[in-house]
Amino acid sequence: MELLIITMLIAGVAAGRKNKTTQDRVVGGKPCLFGLHPYQAALLRNGGIYCGGSLIHPQWVLTAAHCNREIRSVKVHLGDYNLGVDEPTEQIRGILNFFIHPGYKLRPHDSDFMLLELDEPVQINSYVNTIKMATHCPTPGTRCTVSGWGTIKSPKMWLPAIMQCADIYVVSHRACQNTYPGLITEHMFCAGVKKGGIDACQGDSGGPLVCNGKLQGIVSWGKSVCAGEGQPGVYAKVCKAVQWVNRTIKRRLDGLESRS
């Protein structure tokens, strides 16, 4: 995802070197309204944003499979808004286990789903809460919101301290395939704006794309320079992973109960 002029630049945090692949991925967005995205998770490694995620159960976060590198060293922040300060709303958890979708393929990020089992359930409140997964797949033209702490400039990196949000639209499967020939599978869909300028970007990977109040997509991949005209971002299609998610969590919970 790529590039754009931003109306409000938040004090940025100097970023590390960008991965030459397009794995991570909000450019052209604006600060989210505080407290309106209680499901948003920030995956931090060495104190810096690594990926995003979505709280779908008090002890489980859904993110992208390609965020698996050194995943056990990652801390999961819930209820966070400004990563630059300690906030009374935030809850921090470690990762007890992680589960990668069995159909995941690194190229081209097919079935890009990973479940994180937190080392302790979160306390559900107004600032930390779960989101329901979409069971019906996205319809072209649907307005959705992507959020995260990824770079707000591209190709240069400028990581904001405050969570950014942007409204984008689901693209038809045919148009998505025409943009990325041979790379779009049934487990992916595109979303963006026709003129470009708004997109998820490096650091947003694994974060939520929410449509009509439900988790519809996981930030997956796109062009190395974000928000280009006619180059929408690519998202993992949550409707295709719901059964695997529910089955995985149930098996884990049943196993724990049988040993108690």
Summary tags:
mainly beta, 7-stranded antiparallel sheet, single chain, 260 residues
Short note summarizing the structure:
This protein has about 260 residues and is mainly beta. It is built from 2 helices and 16 strands.
Class from helix and strand fractions: mainly beta
**What general form does the structure show?**
globular
Radius of gyration: 17 Å
Helix content bin? under 10%
Number of helices: 2
What percent of residues are in strands? 25-35%
Q: Please give the alpha-carbon distance between the first and last residues.
A: 46 Å
Weakly predicted, low-confidence segments: 1-25
Number of strands: 16
Which series of helices and strands comes N to C?
EEEEEEEEEEEEHEEEEH
Please specify the SSE layout and strand pairing.
Layout lengths: L11 E2 L16 E2 L8 E6 L2 E10 L2 E4 L11 E4 L12 E3 L1 E6 L13 E5 L24 E6 L10 E2 L3 E7 L2 H7 L8 E5 L15 E4 L2 E8 L11 E5 L4 H17 L2
Antiparallel strand pairs: 1-11, 2-12, 3-4, 3-6, 4-5, 5-9, 6-7, 8-9, 10-12, 10-14, 12-13, 13-16, 14-15, 15-16
Care to describe what's here?
This protein is mostly beta strands and 260 residues long. It has helices spanning 173-179, 242-258; strands at residues 12-13, 30-31, 40-45, 48-57, 60-63, 75-78, 91-93, 95-100, 114-118, 143-148, 159-160, 164-170, 188-192, 208-211, 214-221, 233-237. The strands form three sheets. The chain has a seven-stranded antiparallel beta sheet, with helices on one face. A six-stranded antiparallel barrel has the order 10-12-13-16-15-14. The protein is globular and about 50 Å long. Residues 1-25 have low confidence and may be disordered.
